[in-house]
Amino acid sequence: MYRVDFFDAKIIEGTTTSIVLDNGAIKEVSENYTKGAGVRALSGGSWGYTSVDGDFDLSKAIGAASELAVGMDERSHQEKVEMFDISKPVARNMPKVSLDPRDVSLEEKVGLLKEIGARAKIEGISSTSAVYSESSYKVLYTDSTGIEGEYELIRTGFAISAVASREGMYQAGRESRFGVTGYEIFEKHDAFALAEAAANTALQLLDAKPAKGGNLPVILDPELAGVFAHEAVGHASEADLVLEGSSILENRLGQQIASPLINIIDDPTLHEYGFFPFDDEGTQSGKTVLIKDGVFNSYLHSRETAAKLGGEPGHCRAQGHAKPIVRMSNTYIDNGKSNFDEMLEEIKNGVYLIGSRGGQVNTGEGVFQFNAEKGYIIENGQLTTLIRDVSLSGKTLEILNNVRMVGNDLTLTSGRCGKGGQLVPVTDGSPHLMVSEALVGGA
Amino acid sequence: MMYELAGKGLKAALDAGADEAEILLIEDHKTSVDIRKGEIEGAKENISQGLGIRAIVNGAVGFASTNIMSHIEDAARSAVRSARVRDRDPDWISLPYASEYPKVSGTMDPNIEQMELDACILQAVKMIEGAGAVSGIIVTSGSFSRSFGKHLIMNTNGIEVEEKSTGISGFADVITTEGDVSTAYDFAISRKNDLDFTAIGRNAAELARRSQQGISIEPHKTDVIMHPFAFADLLGSAFIPSIDADNVQKERSNLKGKIGEQIATEKLSITDDGLLEGGIETGRSDDEGVPSQRTKVVENGIFRSYLYDTYTAGKDNVKSTGNASRGSYFSTPSVGPRNFIIDHPALDVIADTDKGIYVNTVIGAHTANSISGDFSVEARNAFTIKDGQIDRPVKSLMISGNIFEMLTKVNGAGTDIRKVGGIVTPSIRIPGMSVVG
Question: The whole model's pTM is what?
């Protein structure tokens, strides 16, 4: 019926509710109801893609995507694209939701968020904000090879930020928790304690000293080390970036690229924020070991890149009904044997970097830059001066090789990852890491 | 059709008990052609539509949105429900009222709307060819896109403003395939079909080539010249949040109480302009139907104005500056800049610099402290400047500083004005910046 080699469709339908609290007052309550489809068609080596909103006609959308694919193939003929054959996925291992957020009244959610905001408003805090969000989506996948699958997923979460100010100086503290859980997320995490923690961080930072830059031994806390694992290693492992020539990990399979202490894993089956039962091309999810004992073990694949490079698909995701691309899920550096005190003893002098205010990476050149939320100067094995506006930058492979100790305190942090203009839920994490040398930047 | 639908939604909101209501309806059509590893990968058509409704009950605002047009009445009732769980906001005055709209030009080009798939592919091919003209370079990823659409804002205070618009853009990320690995990118965006796509590919390719074999430098303080890409990135993350009236009212701005004070060198002026001919952020009204205007933000170094939407303006008892902005139909308005124009006397700024560093782009600008203005970013495609000329490429360079301090120190600007999204700026020179190689 359609003159193409392959087509598929992802159909989503669901609602999102969010509440935003600003300085104790509700700033926004909003509900969104969305329905849409993203349709891909492949003709030879050319992809056509169409997205449609609202009440759509699926066969019309497939026809439109097919027309684009055929048109592209005729005008600019490319090497034929093969798709990795998969078997029908099963929506198994789904997270259990004990309290469906849709069964909790809007009034109750508003009341709880106000209380969370109030806990962050301690003495010295000039402003606070807090956000609650929940979503429940039904996802349906179908393709021209007869694969189909369906699941429904509920996500909830909250974020708190507090700003402290003194004599024209402002500092912020933030905490957030998001997961594939229901309203019971507030039983799992003590939102009141986290609100106070955010406020205390902001207050502490007022007294922090600006950092001095230089090449130094460092200890990374689990959050910052997790950001490194995700941004610097995870993205460079994405096979689409490898194929376009934008990854330093191209041609590195089987090679020692890191200290033998390093194991990095991406696992969408964990019941964390990056969970999915099958990806947005219908591939059953599974755990992928990226680095095993320092040896680069696997890329992350879509059906297209797995067919081309060899490997297993299962990491192709889309935001809503956008076109799916190779993505991470729950990415972490696995536990080692050291504890934090041993690291302090071993490092003697250096910098302890804590938390993350985000960062960026150039996967092609293998360089990165991350800003820590705060840090401490380490002198004679003791944490001494608190520092702020401190960043970590350098070469990915150098840092991986400079890791001297891996902690035994793996912690995961939830967030959203942006790539190709699309945001998807992920977690990343690590235990504490001790690195013999890294470029620390200061203000 | 759009008017009829919006009218139905407003009526449903009023019937459900709203005192005021507003509807934003959007229809958008976008075609893009993607490049991957030097080849055309595919084409995309995104046909999107949606509507957002604000309903006000007793001075409390509720919001709902959907992309199913036939659900407009449900969405209206949901917005009213959201409003009812909120307390009355003592700062809420009202939605804006109907008024006259200025004329704008250069925002709608029929050539973009009528562009066929063949022409779209051709523009993407031009970027690949432009990069290919430089040896040892490949476009790792890139994209051409064109869009056309319309939106309608209607509220129960008589506002009814419809706008049609077009846009076209291209970007190319390139990497060297011979010798030292080096990357670069270039992009351009316009409301009219006037972009040189070959130049986008060529500029990125030449920059990547010139960046090979970078040297290391010792930490020091020096003159730094920032390309419009780098300067716009830092302004957007570290400065613009501080002139947002919402941040000022909530004690999240370094510029609170600084109106009338000297905050920048007297040669520097900044205008927020919703009316700029062909500007990326140009339109007859802002995103809640307030007429667009020009606002002097900084005049000869003196800080003149914050940016306001209707709500924040009501709080300060001033008029909205036409800066209500929403990312999409599913977002409520918040304060955002329009075309943000940086003005400084121009000269051949590189030739005028004996010794320093030229920075093309930065990564990590979004990690800047948006309140204090402190930043520490990685400079990309940076070069040393010696005796008024670009000298050697620099590998891995961190620059750090404070945006407010920078503005007081700016002592030069180039003639190379670029539209970086809504930010319109030349290259800017700042003396005495801290660089770590």
Answer: 0.84
